[in-house]
Amino acid sequence: MLSINKLRKLSFLVYGLGSTGKSVVNFFKRNDIKKFEVWDDKNKDLYKKNRAENLNKAVEIVDFIILSPGISLKNIKGKNNLEKFEEKIITDIDLIFLMKNFFKSIVVTGTNGKSTTSKIISHVLQKNGYKTLLGGNIGKPVLSLKSKKNDFLIIEVSSFQLSHSKYICPDYAILLNISNDHLDWHGNKKNYKNSKFKIFKNQKKNQFSLIGNNFKTEFKKRNLKGKLIIPQLKNYKKLKVKIQNPYLKLDINDENMSYVFELVKLFGLREKNFLNSLRSFKGLPHRYEIFLKKKNCTFINDSKATSFQASKGALRNSNNIFWILGGLPKKRDKINLEDFKSNIVKIYLIGKNIKYFKKQIGNKVDYYPSKNLKKSLIQIMKDVKIFKKKNNTILLSPSSASYDQFLNFEKRGEEFKKLCKIYARKYI
User: Fold this and answer.
1) Which of 140, 160, 247, 283 could link 135 by a cystine bridge, Cβ 3.0 to 4.6 Å?
2) Residue 159, phi then psi, degrees to nearest 5
3) How many domains does the chain have?
């Protein structure tokens, strides 16, 4: 454990000056930590007074290198030297745990559902009198969270953040699921899985590890020390019938909720209080977000679904779907419509990889290469009248990243919602 006084004696290189890198610099300045340099391959003017004159020399002499999430050692300046001194590389989240002396922590990771799960945990605990701060991969970087005594830090972590993490040690660690994602960044699924399992690596016997039954054997093989808790979906489903919240009634939330239910039992929370706190929870934007209903059409923004695995919940929970699909597909991701084709009326392909998606769909479902959201919605409005279904679902659940056409999945979702409101008013 490092006190602020000890940190002041150490030297740091902050590599990457996005929101996380900036939060590290601001943290140093707030706490009068002066022995740090910064580096960003593209932005050479930010924090100019602190910019390292020689990157390789800085890497060699500093005590710690704080690497921003998403930066890969494969394609950055100073790659060889950084790899040579990789033992020095930590993350902003590591820094929080190195300093830890009074807060409790809940860390959530997984391929899908981690943001919603983190938000539900924060909501439930707050409604039951706990002081919580939520950050990491959701909301603010952790060093921007000004925690006080007895606060609960709820931290969502991505595989990028975990990849270079060395000191993370949660009181409660939750791994929801693992499926193919970010394999181009990690190199292979083994590396991706190893990064996810890092949330358990430093745990002690009095700390809790929540993980699916399918990873039980692997957890034990790794000789992890945390107290293993395996959420049982059947236990949550018995309780689910009592939940008075339409969003949480959807099957897409069952896996998330089984983990939340198991966690709150560890807190000794009464069932009645748990159920009452769920009434006021609202789902996050871009995650199966039902934002518009007009006549016989329900419009759903599921832009956060950047893999087919992430789209399955939306396809399973909807009927008469006019499905907008496409973007940058994830490496080794495959679209298997066998279980969902009866729910889909027609598919509208967008983005620069239409040929790829045509091949994936084959002749299983009717599709139209609309190329972008605007053309998709114009065609959907025509098709709704042609097919004459009673209850239609207009669904954006792209099963791919947004970067071929949009800055991020949020921009994609906002554009979809804006266009839906225009064309629903015009044609329905």
Assistant:
1) 140
2) -65, -30
3) 3
Query: What per-residue confidence (pLDDT) applies to 75?
Result: 75
pLDDT by residue (tens digit) across 20-63?
A: 999 999 999 999 999 999 999 888 999 999 999 999 999 999 99
How high is the pLDDT of residue 182? Answer: 67
**DSSP assignment letter at 401:** B
Q: Residues with Cβ < 8 Å from 49, sequence gap 6 or more?
A: none
**pLDDT tops 80 at residue 212:** yes
| CA angle in degrees (0–180, nearest 5) for 359-360-365 | 95
Give the pLDDT of residue 186: 65
Domain that holds residue 401: 289-427
- For the record, the structure tokens of 124 come out as 């439930």
Tokens at 98, concatenated: 């190195």
Say how far apart CA 371 and CA 357 lie, in whole Å.
Answer: 12
201 contact partners, CB below 8 Å, separation of at least 6: 168, 222, 224
Predicted TM-score of the model (pTM) = 0.94
Beta bridge partners of 153: 105, 133
CB within 8 A of 26, min separation 6: which ones? 143, 144
Contact indicator for 154, 122 with CB cutoff of 8 Å? yes
Percent of the chain surpassing pLDDT 90? 86
**Among 373, 311, 372, residue whose Cα is nearest residue 344:** 311
Task: Tell me, yes or no, whether 173 lies in a domain.
Answer: yes
CA–CA separation, 36 and 63 (whole Å): 10
Hey, what's the torsion of the CAs at 395, 401, 407, 412, to 10 degrees? 0
> C-alpha angle 341/344/345, rounded to 5°?
125
CB 322 within 8 A of CB 393: yes
Residue 84 lies in a domain: yes
Nearest to 247 by CA among 217, 290, 286, 215: 290
Pairing of strands 132-136, 64-67: unpaired
Tell me 48's DSSP state.
Answer: G
Identify the CATH number of the domain in which residue 353 sits.
Answer: 3.90.190.20
The tens digit of pLDDT for each residue in 98-157 reads 987 678 999 999 999 999 999 999 999 999 999 999 999 998 999 999 888 889 999 999
Contact 38, 60 (CB under 8 A): no
286: its two tokens: 């871009």
